[in-house]
Specification:
It is a single chain. The protein has 331 residues and is of the alpha/beta class. The chain has two domains: 139 residues, Response regulator (Rossmann fold); 146 residues, Rossmann fold, CATH 3.40.50. The protein is 43% helix and 18% strand. It is built from 13 helices and twelve strands. The protein has a seven-stranded mixed beta sheet, with helices on both faces. It has a five-stranded parallel beta sheet with strand order 2-1-3-4-5, sandwiched between helices. Helix 10 links the parallel strand 9 and strand 10.
């Protein structure tokens, strides 16, 4: 027969190990998302975007290793690697996958039409065939994109404004990526006709191709370069900067951090801002929202950055009126 004291002790033990205690000790549910990047793992530009995404998610209560696990895959600008990582991520069945380029997004769409994809940069999603309706995305893609298709003409206008003598512009694009530059070329050609500028297509596959193309283009009088999205690798960017300075060719790139690395001019929406904004889409999807409930957003803020060190290195004086419009001058 159980004594009264033993019964009370046993009852207390049962309460301590019952549902209330279990709830108090139970860790938060771990949610899983993926990220497929067009950058390489050690690329400072890609790392800045990943850091911003993490910051945005943390601000919404999603803390890595506490209630969130992020599967990171850095495909670089290698289509085969992007395809392999896309298949790998899909096989791991995350609840959301974040992308930073049109090509990585399209590759994922070929692997899954059910896992939500949040873009942080994909060019014009309609022109690039990622969705048909940005207000009510009909597939599994939503998020915030980086550029309008018509921005190509703006890039050419800015380069011509900064360097009025320019007569010929080389368009550097990665020929391995299906969407590389394609959505911007028509607006560049329209602007070229109005500005009396001739364009030269400069597709490449690697740094050697870039070197051959830029060395040949350097023979053109009054030339300049526009580097088209998606992002070139760090090695390719370094090759472009080195050769553009060697040949005294003014260049325009589409992201601030590329100007920091040595491009003469950059004009685009701020990448880290988009990554932080993408965190809101991820948050709502993790909380049960449908992709079709969240319209794809276009950027509303663009920044013009000029690298004065590069201007000096190529012997260029940029008009004061142009510099006055810049959001940032790198000296």
């Amino acid at each position: 027969m159980m004594r009264r004291r033993e019964f009370i002790t046993l009852l207390g033990s049962a309460v301590a190990t019952g549902p209330l205690a279990a709830n108090a000790q139970r860790p938060e549910s771990m949610r899983r998302i993926g990220l497929l990047s067009v950058f390489t793992e050690n690329d400072p530009v890609g790392q800045a975007l990943v850091t911003a995404l993490r910051e945005g998610l943390a601000g919404l209560g999603w803390i890595e290793d506490r209630n969130l696990r992020i599967e990171l895959r850095f495909g670089g600008d290698d289509p085969d690697r992007i395809r392999a990582y896309a298949a790998e991520l899909v096989s791991r069945a995350p609840e959301v996958i974040v992308t930073d380029s049109g090509d990585s997004t399209r590759t994922l769409q070929q692997q899954t039409r059910s896992i939500p994809i949040v873009i942080t940069g994909a060019g014009d999603p309609i022109i690039n065939g990622l969705v048909k309706n940005v207000a009510h995305p009909e597939g599994n893609v939503t998020g915030i994109t980086n550029l309008y298709g018509s921005i190509g003409g703006k890039w050419l206008e800015l380069l011509k404004e900064a360097v009025p003598r320019i007569e010929t512009v080389g368009l550097i694009r990665d020929s391995r990526l299906e969407l590389a530059g394609s959505s911007y070329i028509s607006s560049i050609e329209d602007a070229a006709r109005l500005l009396a500028v001739r364009t030269v297509d400069m597709p490449y596959r690697d740094a050697d191709d870039i070197a051959c193309a830029v060395d040949a283009f350097a023979g053109e009088p009054n030339g300049g370069l526009v580097i088209l999205p998606p992002a070139t690798s760090a090695v390719n960017r370094q090759t472009i900067v080195r050769l553009s300075i060697q040949h005294r060719l003014p260049t325009l790139h589409y992201g601030r951090l590329f100007a920091v690395e040595g491009a003469l001019i950059a004009y685009s929406s701020p990448g880290p801002d988009r990554s932080r904004r993408a965190a809101f889409f991820v948050d709502h999807i993790l909380r049960g929202a449908k992709v079709s409930d969240w319209p794809i957003e276009y950027p509303t803020k663009f920044e013009l950055v000029v690298n004065l060190k590069t201007a000096k290195a190529i012997g260029l004086t940029i008009p004061e009126a142009f510099l006055a419009r810049a959001d940032e001058l790198i000296e």
